[in-house]
């Protein structure tokens, strides 16, 4: 038999590389679930940001730089091509400064979608330029800019016809009427674009002194999505281009008065859907993977261990390691606690208190009792037993004296 034949053969079924521990494998399997959940939540948040992300630059509704369907970039670009000077602003101070350059030749377009402007702010807006156009105005803005005008409860829908002779509607026999309807009891108010049913108008124009205010409810006609439909482009360009300068004002959080505003008004629109989505994902994960407690089951203990066995086991450990001092300390601690209880001392009483009270009761020398209770160290097993017996006798003597008093 050759040397090669004498070598042990290698079992090919056995792994040659390092093997992962079972605990590590279990943790890896559990981690896969949470990694998948995290990836799904991240993907959902990204989708929500894309779909609902109106907080991005230029992404606001009727935003002059927003090229999405709800923006108004197309109208603004065409106005600029026709020679209209369009100035975009986002604060009241910027708007005031832009309108002050040529107030008699300036139209101010305002769309306060988030309700940042209050009554006092609208009063300031009313003094900017010669013509103020308000899109989807709330009742606060109407009370200041067009008293006697009210917003209807139902929305406008469908295609509307002018029914008035405003220049802005001269070339627009059909206008997309989606938006807010208004009614007005103001004397001399011009009401255009009547609703097909239910009453109300898509445009109301009020003239006071030398200032003109136009309330526009058909805001869909100004957006990129509808500006090419029907006669919306002519309507948007004639309405917004009646002055050489157009200030396009979208209020922001900066315009809120000090001490006002809520968390909802100060956060972008995508925050709330994202929080709801994260909470739903966390709840789904908890329900799926959470531990479920079933009914209580009564089980018999596998074994009953007597207290004496525990004590004897500890004693054998002390004996095996020659831990005489440690064993004696355990006996002394128990003796001091029982002596303090018998002598009426508190649980926080010191060793000296126990020694002095015991010595006074027994008429013994405190130094001898302290040596027994604390100081003396056993040098062999015989001395350990002797000290243990002394502690027992001391405890019995104290108990007898207390009982006989």
TrEMBL record:
Tell me which UniProt keywords the record has, alphabetically: Membrane, Transmembrane, Transmembrane helix
Query: What is the designated name of this protein?
Result: DUF4350 domain-containing protein
* Domain of life per record: Bacteria
- Region annotated Disordered, chain positions: 1-21
Record domain DUF4350: where: 64-240
Instruction: Please name one Pfam family that this protein belongs to.
Output: DUF4350
Q: Which organism is it from?
A: Frondihabitans cladoniiphilus
Q: Where is the composition biased (Basic and acidic residues)?
A: 1-13
Annotated membrane-spanning segments are 33-52
């Amino acid at each position: 038999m050759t040397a090669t034949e004498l070598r042990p053969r290698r079992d090919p079924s056995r792994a040659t590389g390092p093997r992962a521990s079972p605990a590590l494998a279990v943790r890896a399997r559990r981690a896969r679930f949470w990694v998948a959940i995290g990836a799904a939540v991240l993907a959902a948040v990204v989708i929500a940001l894309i779909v609902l992300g109106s907080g991005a630059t230029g992404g606001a509704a009727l935003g002059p730089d927003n090229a999405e369907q709800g923006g108004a970039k197309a109208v603004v670009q065409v106005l600029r091509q026709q020679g209209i000077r369009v100035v975009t602003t986002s604060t009241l101070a910027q708007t005031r400064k832009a309108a002050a350059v040529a107030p008699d030749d300036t139209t101010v377009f305002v769309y306060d979608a988030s309700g940042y402007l209050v009554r006092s702010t609208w009063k300031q807006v009313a003094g900017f330029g010669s013509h103020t156009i308000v899109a989807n105005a709330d009742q606060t803005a109407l009370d200041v800019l067009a008293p006697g005008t009210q917003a209807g409860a139902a929305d406008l829908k469908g295609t509307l016809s002018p029914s008035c002779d405003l220049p802005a509607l001269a070339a627009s026999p059909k206008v997309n009427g989606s938006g807010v309807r208004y009614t007005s009891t103001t004397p001399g108010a011009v009401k255009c674009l009547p609703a097909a049913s239910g009453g109300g108008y898509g445009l109301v124009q009020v003239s006071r002194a030398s200032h003109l205010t136009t309330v526009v409810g058909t805001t869909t006609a100004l957006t990129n999505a509808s500006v090419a439909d029907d006669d919306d482009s002519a309507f948007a360009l004639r309405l917004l281009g009646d002055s050489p300068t157009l200030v396009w004002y979208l209020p922001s959080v900066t315009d809120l008065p000090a001490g006002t505003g809520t968390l909802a008004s100060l956060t972008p629109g995508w925050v709330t859907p994202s929080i709801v989505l994260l909470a739903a994902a966390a709840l789904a994960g908890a329900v799926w993977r959470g531990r479920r407690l079933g009914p209580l089951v009564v089980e018999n203990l596998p074994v009953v261990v007597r207290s004496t066995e525990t004590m004897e086991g500890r004693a054998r450990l002390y004996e095996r390691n020659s831990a005489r001092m440690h064993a004696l300390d355990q006996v002394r601690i128990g003796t001091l606690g029982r002596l303090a209880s018998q002598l009426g001392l508190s649980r926080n009483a010191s060793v000296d208190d126990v020694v002095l009270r015991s010595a006074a009761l027994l008429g013994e020398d405190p130094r001898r009792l302290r040596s027994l209770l604390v100081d003396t160290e056993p040098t062999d097993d015989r001395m350990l037993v002797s000290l243990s017996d002394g502690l027992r006798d001391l405890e019995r003597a104290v108990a007898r004296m207390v009982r006989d008093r």
